[in-house]
Design goal:
eight-stranded mixed β-sheet; alpha+beta; about 25% helix
Amino acid sequence: MTRKYTPFLEGELIDLCAPSAAAVADGWTDLFNDAETTRYLPQGAFPNTVEQQTEFYNALSAGGRLSLLVCDKQGETLWGTISLSSIDWLARSAQISMVLRSPQERPRLAALEAMARLGEHGFTTMGLERIWAGQAYPGLAKWNQRLELLGYRTEGLLRRGVAKGRRVSDSLMISVLYVDYLRVTASRTYWPGAAA
């Protein structure tokens, strides 16, 4: 069977696959046009087009960002994207972000495994010391709690840090450090598995 997407980081429930031009027309563009998916993101205020997403895809090779597709294990279905951006090689830090289709369209723990797989790659292969993110609060409070399983900790609150139209909420700044990763992996693998 020929795969539509090529795995870069293989997982248990998902694979993180190399971006491709085919993905642009296969749903990558549509992710950023869905109002529910982009409710906490700057995207979605203006329509995303195939031309814009193709331009973004073509610019990925310029560096400064590791962007991967979150796919099913057969490499056929694109569920979303995950990336390390704002990579600072001197400080050895990067911002992690993920955009996924609704939970009904993918395995329940797919999002957490994607964060674990890319985080582990960031620490062990890229040599990062800090991976950070901003989370809408209170909207993503339960997601933030799940990320604590991977060593993420809240570092601060940015009042009214997320605005979309007339909807405004706070933003939690979270991060996981390499020492946190080592603490977690001293007792188990970073991705503990779906059965854990």
